[in-house]
Design a protein that fits this description.
230 residues; mainly alpha; Urease accessory protein UreF; 11 helices
């Protein structure tokens, strides 16, 4: 068993926006939304963040919880199916790229810092393209392997989605740190209720139909608006 303080330290480490998997370079379409003046202040940013979060909870979070429980009973085929279901829900190429790129990097880091036969097998299958290796499923496998709980996994998935958008907003929307932290605080207060809403959900409940975000993603793929330029 993992003691409470160690679990808290691990949760802080793996939910940190500075954890080096590359999430800082993605915005969940916010760059295009800001460029098109759809998101232009704190109020519209909160609306957009809530939309991203709703999509994440009803797709990534459901699959993550399924994969976490599958890892606990060593059901590798179910982990693979959860991973496949995430990809099936992602309509745009950028979303798939974000989840697979960060998922692979997560698996690489985790196999370097701990000994987990399951994670090593998962990374090998990612490299051999036997699985997509999405970030929420990779995160779920590792959280289970290092003694974290499924509630802590849910918190990390939710926090990661919200924080990704809010960090990007500081670069491309006219908002302050005070405003983004206030949004994060308000959304965090709703996390327990959100967990209860999806804790028993399965693949048939997964949905990611937010056409406005897919349109913004398609504009971003061919557009010039970027948080970082080389």
């Amino acid at each position: 068993m993992t003691d409470d303080i160690t679990r808290l330290m691990r949760l802080a480490e793996f939910a940190d926006s500075a954890f080096p998997v590359g999430t800082f370079s993605f915005s969940n379409g916010l760059e295009s939304a800001a460029f098109e003046n759809i998101v232009h202040d704190a109020e519209t940013l909160e609306q957009y963040t809530r939309t991203v979060l709703r999509q994440t909870l009803h797709c990534d979070a459901i699959a993550a919880l399924v994969a976490f429980r599958a890892a606990a009973r060593n059901d590798y085929e179910e982990i693979k199916e959860a991973d496949r279901q995430v990809i099936l829900c992602k309509m745009n190429a950028e979303a798939r790229q974000m989840l697979t790129r960060t998922g692979k990097k997560m698996a690489e880091i985790c196999t370097r810092i701990t000994e987990s036969a399951l994670m090593k097998r998962w990374l090998q299958d990612i490299r051999e393209q036997q699985v997509a290796g999405t970030y929420p499923v990779t995160q779920a496998v590792y959280f289970q392997q290092c003694g974290l709980t499924e509630k802590e996994l849910f918190a990390a998935v939710e926090y990661g989605a919200v924080n990704m958008v809010l960090n990007a907003a500081l670069r491309c929307v006219k908002v302050s740190h005070y405003e983004t932290q206030a949004i994060l605080y308000r959304l965090g207060a709703e996390a327990s209720e959100e967990y209860e809403n999806i804790r028993d959900a399965g693949y048939e409940d997964m949905t990611a139909f937010v056409p406005e975000m897919d349109i913004l993603a398609s504009l971003h793929e061919k557009g010039t608006m970027r948080m970082f330029m080389n």
